[in-house]
Amino acid sequence: MLKTSLLAAAASLTLAATGTTAFAADAGAKNVVLVHGGFVDGAGWKGVYDILKKDGYTVSIVQNPTTSLAADVAATRQAIDKADGSVVLVGHSYGGVVISEAGTHEKVQSVVYIAAFAPDKGESVSSLIANPPAGAPVPPILPPVDGFLFLDKAKFAASFAADVDAETAAFMADSQVPWGVEALAGAVTEPAWKTKPSYYLVAGEDRMIPPAAQQMMAKRAGSTVVEVPGSHAVYVSNPKAVADLIEKAAETAN
């Protein structure tokens, strides 16, 4: 839940004594901006959104064009610009690259990575996946068509959403968003995690980004880390764990 300032608490007590009420002011990060990754859109954040809204946060969901990193960063910065106050910026998967670049915005108080890429300066998705360790699962990405990528629908659930109910996983496979090859090649200039507090949720059963790679990136970024059992779609299958980490980031920003 959002924390109230001491002044707001004192004001609330005064108003209560006079029989009147008012909304308490908030001293910290009250805005959350959620950024989706490749192959999906913002609809997958619904469970996380519902929890955060119930707990009093103002939540915006970015719909990335996923055509280029620059375009996705621009869309994210628009959402940050509109926020009334400080922001916790959250990215899933490729969305981690987007928040690493967009998170240097002055309104961003902290960045939260959910089973996400957390690149260093000059790194991109393409460079981070260039040399996978032996035995690492290989995501079923089909050859590009007209500069865009898709996952093999028949293998989508097993690779991306193994712990999501079958009906939802099938919908996610059938409603894939084309992921531009140019977006994968987009390199980060100055990663936000070097100057902003960062948090990282490792999905322990991820078959898109190996958990060991997630742990390496989180350690490198100096992130506060939690690990939960879950697929790459942990934000869909376990929204409470994701929302809990986001709220921790918001509270720490106070």
Characterization of this structure:
- This is Alpha/beta fold hydrolase.
- InterPro entries: AB_hydrolase_1, AB_hydrolase_fold, Sec-Metab_Biosynth_Hydrolase.
- The protein has 254 residues and is an alpha/beta fold.
- The chain has one domain (32-252): 3-Layer(aba) Sandwich (Rossmann fold).
- Helix content is 39%, strand content 15%.
- The chain has 11 helices and 8 strands.
- The chain has helices at 6-17, 46-54, 69-82, 95-102, 125-128, 153-160, 166-174, 181-185, 211-221, 234-237, 239-252; strands at 31-35, 58-62, 87-92, 108-114, 148-149, 179-180, 198-203, 224-228.
- The chain has a 6-stranded parallel beta sheet with strand order 2-1-3-4-7-8, sandwiched between helices. The chain has a two-stranded antiparallel ribbon with strand order 5-6.
- Helix 2 packs across helix 11 (239-252), helix 3 (69-82) crosses helix 4 and helix 6 (153-160) packs across helix 7.
- The longest helix has 14 residues, at 69-82.
- It is globular and about 45 Å long.
- The protein starts with 5 loop residues before the first helix and ends with a helix.
